[in-house]
Design goal:
This is Deoxyribose-phosphate aldolase. By secondary structure, the protein is of the alpha/beta class. 50% of the residues lie in helices and 10% in strands. It has a single domain, classed as Aldolase class I (TIM Barrel, Alpha-Beta Barrel), CATH 3.20.20. The protein has an 8-stranded parallel β-sheet with strand order 7-6-5-4-3-2-1-8.
């Protein structure tokens, strides 16, 4: 790490101490060219990969899936079955890789932990009054600690969008930093809920705010609002993590979530990652898909490539 990078990291670490400094920095970030971002995302979305490269992309995408169920009707049996599927997505093919993580509500964490114990699959839990984020801070932190104590090694928190949109950036910063501390050794994914942020400039500012406060990942969405992950929004977030690493030397992951359902969708995102931030992020440690139905489509396409025959989605279980 260069002396310049060390100095930049030191300067940036001081921003959270002052609302004025934080506001000045965030509003001093370069504005996002909306037309340019959308055209760039559309252009990257037209790229096509074939044969061996496609097979490698599918396996990589499987390894990047955070297999998710976040429903009020979730049961211990349902999440145990999901965890078993995460370990062996295609029981008929032992060469099929496992997924990146299983993501559930805090109350379901102990049941998933029973199945995943000793494996390389991570256990993620949403927390901090997901999906609204509207709860007293002590409840949000208790939510986080309970999930970690039950076995979660990744926490997906939601920011207070009301505070962010009102310009109370220090309040949001402090909540993220406190949640990061409550995580202990668990990684923290910060959900921006980009569909509620209205502008790409706000997405860029929220991305930087989350990283400055200590987030290990920035995540697009809860999947509980009408507008979830999009390619242009993810492009803006990828540019933010690229620029953040250049400024501080610290690498932060990205997780688009919500609405990513097909192999074609997943490959578009992988192309964007490669073209925007490079191969350092083409790894489950640095890029994930928050999804449920995506995994079945990836498995269907994988089977088609290896056998020449499509299997129906219910062949791999319906989630």
């Amino acid at each position: 790490m260069t002396a310049t990078t060390t100095s930049a990291r030191s300067d940036l670490s001081e921003l959270g101490r002052s609302e004025t400094a934080l506001r000045t920095f965030l509003h001093g970030l370069p504005g996002v060219d909306q037309v340019g971002a959308e055209q760039r995302a559309a252009q990257l979305g037209t790229r096509s990969i074939k044969t061996t490269a496609k097979a490698q992309a599918i396996d990589l995408a499987i390894r990047m899936v955070d297999l998710t169920t976040l429903e009020g009707a979730d049961t211990p049996g349902k999440v145990r079955a999901l965890a078993a599927k995460a370990l062996r997505p295609d029981p008929a093919d032992p060469s099929c890789p496992h997924v990146g993580a299983v993501c559930v509500y805090p109350a379901m964490v102990p049941y998933v932990a029973e199945v995943l114990r000793g494996s390389a699959v991570h256990l993620a839990s949403v927390a901090t009054a997901f999906p609204s984020g509207q709860a007293p801070m002590e409840i949000k932190l208790a939510d986080t600690r309970a999930a970690v104590e039950a076995g979660a090694d990744e926490i997906d928190m939601v920011i207070n969008r009301g505070a962010f949109l009102a310009g109370r950036y220090a309040e949001v910063y402090d909540e993220i930093a406190a949640t990061k501390q409550a995580c202990g050794d668990a990684h923290l994914k910060v959900i921006l809920e980009t569909g509620e942020l209205a502008t790409y400039d706000n997405v860029r500012r929220a991305s930087w705010l989350a990283m400055l406060a200590g987030g290990d990942f920035i995540k697009t969405s809860t999947g509980k609002v009408p507008v979830a992950a999009t390619l242009p929004v993810t492009l803006v977030m990828l540019e933010a993590v690229r620029d953040f690493r250049a400024a501080t030397g610290r690498q932060v992951g990205v997780k688009p979530a919500g609405g990513i359902k097909t192999t074609k969708d997943a490959i578009k995102y992988l192309v964007m990652v490669n073209e925007t931030v490079g191969p350092d992020w083409l790894d489950p440690d640095w890029f994930r898909f928050g999804a449920s139905s995506l995994l079945n489509d990836l498995l269907m396409q994988r089977t088609k490539l290896t056998t020449g025959v499509y299997a129906g989605p219910d062949y791999f279980t319906l989630d």
